[in-house]
Amino acid sequence: MDDNKTLMEAFKQAPYPLGGHGKRNIQILKEAFREIDGSLPSDMYGKGEIIEDFQARMADVLGKEAAVFFPSGTMAQQIALRIWCDANGLPRVAYHPLCHLEIHEEDGLKKLHRIEPVLLADKHRLITLEDVMRLQEDISCLLLELPQREIGGQLPAYEELEAISAWCRDKGIKLHLDGARLFEILPYYRKSAAEICRLFDSVYISFYKGIGGIAGAILAGDEPFVQEAKVWKRRHGGDLISLYPYIVSSDYYFQQRIDKMDPYYRDAKQLAGLFNQCNGVATLPEVPVSNMFHVHFQLPKETVEPLLIGVYESTGIGFTSYLRDNDAAGCFFELSLGDAYADVPEDRMKLALRMLSDKLKESAMEKSTTS
Amino acid sequence: MDDNKTLMEAFKQAPYPLGGHGKRNIQILKEAFREIDGSLPSDMYGKGEIIEDFQARMADVLGKEAAVFFPSGTMAQQIALRIWCDANGLPRVAYHPLCHLEIHEEDGLKKLHRIEPVLLADKHRLITLEDVMRLQEDISCLLLELPQREIGGQLPAYEELEAISAWCRDKGIKLHLDGARLFEILPYYRKSAAEICRLFDSVYISFYKGIGGIAGAILAGDEPFVQEAKVWKRRHGGDLISLYPYIVSSDYYFQQRIDKMDPYYRDAKQLAGLFNQCNGVATLPEVPVSNMFHVHFQLPKETVEPLLIGVYESTGIGFTSYLRDNDAAGCFFELSLGDAYADVPEDRMKLALRMLSDKLKESAMEKSTTS
């Protein structure tokens, strides 16, 4: 074992990563375009068959009047919130403390749109109806992320969602869905995308999570909302002369994977079960409600990292390329299951998990002896 | 002749368009990626060889410390102006009344960044040193567009540019270059890109004008400026997980066409000369200073449009897909010469211009008889 090898390097060299759809390389684009006729005209500033047809089909999938394709979800969601705030004349929204807009966007919502967020719930749990009802301040829009990614991809019960939606409608609060992983939760809810989206006034979906495209997003809602979103898209610099590299690949991988969300979900439940049998390991949620979950270790990053590298090198199985500290002096990583899992030899995977468990047990014992 | 055919339809059917690089279709992407190895890793949120290498090479071409790739120029330029305004603590800039930010971006600069623009010069002419010196209000940044696209692509003398640059430096005003068509003007100035950029604090260039890529832009400046631009790029929703579809194609067409700016410029001068021999036609500028110019007709759009359709159908030459009203009760269109011009048979083109000239003369006589 090379002592200087990083977890990232060891992971890249492992032939059997557990999560994802395989390597993110140029082949993703080449495959998506292989069968596309070169004479197909490019979209031009939001016009043209390529973009208009895809938008119409996605509006249909989501059960909304209209949809607009965006280069990124960051842009799509800030714009959705801005439109609802402007409509209501109040630049205030509410979302989870670990919302993408709060932790991954360099405060674009505040710096560009001057919208003030109210943080609901706490960062360890989901937003509940009670949180929403207890809100002290008026808000124009509530954003819900399904599943709540940063806490392992948890979901409220469908009835709770319905109750939050009804309460918001009653109070004149717009409800926006961060549905970056919307398709991934449909097997758990046993609902169609349109059935979920019916509870929301606006919806964003992503094409590079479970769908595995290159990049790109759709924002959907009623016709006036989408018309306004197109104006803001231009203001943000998102109305590129041509977005077809993302549209064609989003469409291709949507068709490839939309019917695989059931197996991804089943795989996630099976794999989480196996992780939970390891010493000092627990998944969040314990039983996944989508294709994703977090794997938490009781031991700290510095201890777990070399153990993982050893397991990857012995078995060829790659769990993760990184570890992050958790709040309990341990560490964790995220897994989202996709096409790659089907290529993982089951015997090797089970061997890898046994080795991991043994090594973790050994380290825990050493630790308790020395402390 | 089909009386219902629009100018756009007739132009699309004409086998020999005078301007551009050929049809904007999916083949543009397929050709750029044909020789690229599929195993090349994608860029990830601004990191990775594909994006970092291209940014470094473009910084070098522009003679700047650093550069960052953007999905669009709209995003890049708003951000440049925001950075300079924030640094100076004054949200005010100056630019030409027909600046891209003023007329094509749905007021993103005002609505997103709350920056107030002062309009310099008037819309029929270039900004001069005198305009800048006469400014009544303090500004943080002056934006110059070279060439000034909306007035046919005009350019100030290099000495005037130098004087404006020196004056701005002396007054602590940052000078930003809208260099969407920077490479197209180098043959006229007989300067390198770096020699022009030396006069500016920040520079934006585009990859789908003379370069003919799919979309994409570079913003360059000193290292702290570019670091800040990367933060704003994330805020705007421009820090896509992967931008390689635009980077690879920008790089490919940059290499294909960077050495063709001389012939494009020569072709533009030749073709403008031919247009100027037509009855009731004048180009702006009379002698082009880049690969672009505007073609103005004395007669109105309604009169010129059917004449053009007739010429396209008789000769196969396509001048333009649209006409816009000008301020003199006539109309005009824009031409930017690229690869397509080399495929135009000279005899047909000259025939087309003769026919156009004859038809325009006839129409002008009819008009004077009936009025």
Automatic annotation (TrEMBL), chains A, B:
Recorded family membership: Belongs to the threonine aldolase family.
Annotated organism of origin: Cohnella pontilimi
Single GO MF descriptor: L-allo-threonine aldolase activity
Keyword line: Pyridoxal phosphate
Superkingdom, taxonomy of origin: Bacteria
GO cellular component assignments: cytosol
Pfam families to which the protein is assigned, alphabetical: Beta_elim_lyase
One GO-annotated biological process of the protein: L-threonine catabolic process
Cofactor: pyridoxal 5'-phosphate
Protein name, UniProt field: Low specificity L-threonine aldolase
Aromatic amino acid beta-eliminating lyase/threonine aldolase domain residues: 43-295
